[in-house]
Amino acid sequence: MPTSNCTYGLRELLVKVLKRNTKRIDQSSGDEISEMASVTKEDRISSLPWDVLDGILVRLPLKEVVRTSILSSGWRRHKWTGISQFVIDDKCIPSRISDKVARWKSIMEILRQVQLHHTGPIEKFKLAAYCRPDHSDLDQWIHFLADKGLKEFILQEFDTIKRFNLPFCLFSCPLLNRLELFGCRIKPSSEAIGFKSLVNLHLNEVCVTGGTLEWLVINSPVLERLTLLNIDHQIVLRIGNTNLKYLKVDSNFDDIYLENSPSLACVDIGLRARVIPRLFGSEGGKLIRVIGCLHAIKKLSLSSAILAFLGNNGVPDKLPALLPHLSVLELKDVQLDSLTEVLVCVCIFRSAPNLEELHLSVASTTVYYRPAADFLITKLSNHYFEQLKVAKIRAVQNVQTETILIQLLLAHSPVLKRMTIVHYGSRIFPTEVLEQSVPASKDVEIFNLCV
Fold first, then answer.
1. Among 264, 298, 318, where does a domain finish?
2. pLDDT per residue over 196-220, tens digit each?
3. Same domain, 433 and 287
């Protein structure tokens, strides 16, 4: 592409982004900027205030930002390296480079230019490219960022042979409010644990001890969102933070404690494998300790394995303290031929008087287990889902226990608006079964689907 045409395209792109995202420029200034598309002799882009230019550039892909160096002589002097946000993704690397080590070298060419020429703050850095980072390079880059007023640091999935040791300097970033780590080892000195401004913490395939994680959460006083995926070792999770509102766990662990997080409103807990818990309490202790303390919970998602875990040493008919704010309940891959899992499900049903949405997926099974079916009938025959408006049952296999649950939901949900039944197979859920059911709600719509 000729340089003049390329320059024209970039100018047009800058003008469009500026018009859409910058409110600091009045209408008259906007008219002048629009003329840039047709003016080739004057360089009015460079005369814009730097905070306005930075607001434009951080909204462009980094590859396009680098290309702005052809706009004028001023831009050739590494103006692009002064931006406040850097997102390194696959688009920054030439498509001809496929080797993971070579891709990292290509990334380092960009980062070295930034290190040489950057002035001012760097508020955000994100690495989301398929590569194999050199640990010494990455360590050096983080030390560079630590003195730049960093607010967001994100490492997404990349190829790794061994865990990268997170440098202590990252814990000294006073403005850091978002931290996403992948493939790292967190082993800070005791005085370094915690982030005073951290709001969002996301750990994926990270090596961390239970004690370090506990203190990290406790000593991040404004933390609101915590995500833990594929933690390297099975540890005891002790999540205690009075400000925490969102928790997602999808990993293996020995036990979990949530008593000291009273503000939790959205909780999603999954176990990667069925494990025999090593710690035991009194009858019903786990279910009461993990779920019964969630007094502010509004949305709860639980996997089949965590249901089995929670019911390991007994299940009460109802939690001692109800869950009055729980409005959305998601139960994933429930084994309805498991009495333990059915016991836990029913206990939560009976403890959530204001439940409005129920999303339940059924594990693949063709087994009819009479004790589980009888328990459903016994415990739910006198229980009404007074506020339930939406119910969705997925992966139905036409086993009798499923039929019983569907009929009970229809018969005991007086304000139900929509029931969706998704059958995974060649036939839909038997229509004659639905015709035999007498819905408690006159307004309910039943969607019987097959996928």
1. 264
2. 999 999 999 999 999 999 999 999 9
3. yes
